[in-house]
Amino acid sequence: MNAAATIASATPLRMIWVTFQRAGFHCWPDAPKKREYLSAKHRHLFKFRVWIQVWHGDREVEFHTFLEWLEGLYRDNILQLDGKSCETISDELYGNIASNYPGRDVWIEVSEDGECGSFSQYAASEQRK
Fold first, then answer.
1. Pairing of strands 42-54, 106-112
2. Tens-digit pLDDT profile for residues 20-73
3. Strand arrangement, sheet containing 106-112
4. Helix/strand/coil for 19
């Protein structure tokens, strides 16, 4: 079977991704003694990488449009995130994406300074339950 026939017979999961970053402050009020310093409000450069499922390969969701929309959700120059973790930030972002782009797989990575972070996959089949 040639490559074109193989691709034609497969159903790919097509995703596009965009990245952006925002400075923000958060804390971990219940930090254990060993990490007590995290209980105080501290600054990070939160970095986001967001993948979203697309139905075809011809700009069905255009990169720049999606990026501008995501950045618009975080208009403030400095995010005030209180006690939110990277995972919580991801879940809240997903809620906005699912409302505007329903029925799609979405993957979200949120990191603190590009050093430590979280990765969450949200399956479209889970949205329908």
1. antiparallel
2. 999 999 999 999 999 999 999 999 999 999 999 999 889 999 999 999 999 999
3. 78-80, 14-26, 42-54, 106-112, 116-122
4. strand
Confirm if 69 and 97 have CB atoms less than 8 A apart.
no
Going by C-alpha positions, the residue among 9, 21, 13, 11 that lies closest to residue 89 is 21
DSSP string, 113-126: TTTEEEEEEE-HHH
What is the distance, to the nearest Å, from the Cα of residue 49 to the centroid of all Cα atoms in its chain?
5
Overall pTM surpassing 0.70 (yes/no): yes
Q: Between vectors from CA 92 to CA 87 and to CA 95, what angle results, nearest 5°?
A: 125
Report DSSP letters for 71-95, one per residue: HHTT-SSEEE-TT--HHHHHHHHHH
Q: How far apart are CA 55 and CA 60, in angstroms?
A: 7
pLDDT score for 79: 85
